[in-house]
Automatic annotation (TrEMBL), chain A:
GO terms for cellular component: plasma membrane. It is found in: Cell membrane. It is a multi-pass membrane protein. The keyword Transmembrane applies. The chain crosses the membrane at residues 21-41, 84-105, 134-152, 219-242. It holds the Pfam family FtsX. Keywords: Cell membrane, Membrane, Transmembrane, Transmembrane helix. This is ABC3 transporter permease C-terminal domain-containing protein. Residues 85-165 form the ABC3 transporter permease C-terminal domain.
Length: 253, 208
């Protein structure tokens, strides 16, 4: 437990560093949660669209095809768009983290020297540094997780609104005018034989309890990913830094 | 170079062979700069990360400040819990034993005095079973009384604990007073070649 005690003492001493990691964690978690929820929502809408097409009365199929074709296309485009965005975001976060660590390690050069003089190996230094960053990330993750669960209802409706806005915007871009769109919708739902109306055809049931339970699993996935990355990146960079500085014990540092 | 081949081992043996008595050795360094350079040179050549637990050499420096500020003296000395019980009484050679002084042990690294910082480094090395301790010129500039007191402590340590201590000093009196265990030239030390002086600077100086 010495290891943990040292990590906690160091974090309390290096508050700016701890704060930086916490901010990074919040940014990473909220960004990945937003983008991955968008992907989930889009996928759900797409699946729903397919199944609902067959629930429509056959006489409206002619209109429906005109309407659903572009909608499916937009959903697929948006999914691709969000997936690319997610990858890009994770990449940028990783770069920012590495940069932050690199800058920060320089200011802690003196500590590394102390560990080395105390006979500690590069691996020990790497472990110790990894312990600090990982501990901060885990605490930030737990906090973020609880906060998300607490506000999951409003968070989900906010995400759904954003999702709908993005969808309508994308739909406009593929030359389906709003009036034309509404006319088609009206014609499809004239019969009123379906358990859903024009609005729910577009955006699914407003409050699907299933969607709440996506949050913990999405957070766990990206939290785990972030944790693994942080552990690997900080261990490696501290090990490397310690290795490079092994033979320089200049007074400055 | 990230993966340097090991070269220190034969040098280490020579070094240990030269300082083979459990006593206090003095090495004369003409000035502070040379003392620092020597200390660094020895560390570079002798520090061997492969043998960390059984490493025979320890380094103690006043200049480099080798105490973590956010850990207590206790945590700076004992890296692992398991060391504590094993060594609590072993290094008691005087009525005052820092290892049983709770006030000293619970002081944070950043609040330690010069002398206490020395104790932290000393006991850290002793507990790691280091048998040869290399110290920088940590007695230079101290009062005569303090130097006398420290030398007595060092000698008691070498005799009772069987460790070898090597002290760098710019103080000629210490060298003259202990001719049997003193080195007037620095053993093994090869100073780095000085960078070439700027020819324009030299010309300027010459013209002045």
């Amino acid at each position: 437990m010495r290891f943990l005690e040292r990590a906690v003492a160091s974090l309390l001493y290096h508050r700016k560093f701890a704060l930086g990691i916490v901010l990074w964690s919040f940014l990473f978690l909220s960004g990945t949660l937003y983008l991955s929820t968008m992907i989930v929502l889009e996928r759900q809408s797409l699946n729903q669209l397919d199944s609902r097409f067959y629930q429509l009365p056959t006489q409206t199929h002619q209109h429906a095809v005109q309407l659903l074709g572009p909608m499916q296309k937009v959903h697929r485009q948006l999914i691709q768009h969000y997936e690319f965005g997610l990858l890009l975001f994770i990449g940028i976060c990783a770069l920012v983290f590495l940069l932050f660590i690199a800058i920060y390690l320089r200011s802690r050069r003196k500590e590394f020297r102390i560990y080395r003089f105390a006979g500690k190996s590069n691996a020990f230094i790497g472990r110790q540094f990894m312990g600090e960053t990982l501990l901060t990330f885990v605490l930030a993750f737990i906090f973020f997780f609880l906060l998300t669960l607490l506000f999951s209802k409003s968070l989900l409706s906010m995400f759904q609104n954003l999702n709908q806005q993005a969808f309508m915007q994308a739909l406009n871009q593929i030359n389906i005018s709003r009036t034309n769109f509404n006319r088609l919708l009206r014609e499809i739902f004239q019969a009123r034989l379906t358990p859903f109306n024009g609005n729910t055809l577009l955006f699914g049931p407003g409050q699907d309890p299933d969607q709440f339970f996506q949050f913990p699993s999405l957070l766990a996935t990206y939290g785990g990913l972030g944790g693994l990355f942080i552990a690997a990146a900080s261990w490696c960079s501290a090990w490397l830094a310690s290795r490079i500085w092994q033979h320089s014990i200049q007074k400055r540092g | 170079m990230l993966f340097k081949p090991k070269q220190a081992s034969s040098f280490m043996l020579e070094f240990q062979h030269l300082f083979d008595q459990a006593t206090l050795y003095f090495i004369y360094t003409p000035d502070q700069e040379t003392a620092t350079a020597t200390f660094q040179y020895y560390f570079d050549r002798l520090h061997d990360e492969q043998n960390k637990t059984t490493h025979p050499l320890g380094f103690i420096s006043q200049e480099l400040d080798l105490v973590l500020p956010y850990l207590s003296a206790r945590d700076n000395i004992f890296w692992e819990d398991s060391f504590k019980n094993e060594h609590q009484q072993k290094f008691r050679i005087r009525p005052y034993d820092p290892l049983t002084d709770e006030r000293f042990l619970s002081t944070m690294g950043r609040d330690l005095t010069r002398q206490q910082r020395f104790y932290v480094q000393l006991y850290r090395n002793l507990i790691a079973r280091r048998k040869l301790l290399i110290m920088d010129n940590l007695l230079d500039g101290e009062s005569v009384a303090h130097i006398r007191e420290s030398l007595t402590l060092f000698r008691e340590m070498t005799q009772q604990l069987g460790v070898t201590m090597v002290l760098l000093t710019t103080n000629r009196e210490l060298i003259d007073g202990n001719p049997a265990t003193s080195f007037r030239t620095i053993p093994f030390y090869q100073p780095k070649p000085k960078p070439l002086t700027n020819p324009i600077g030299t010309l300027k100086k010459a013209s002045e």
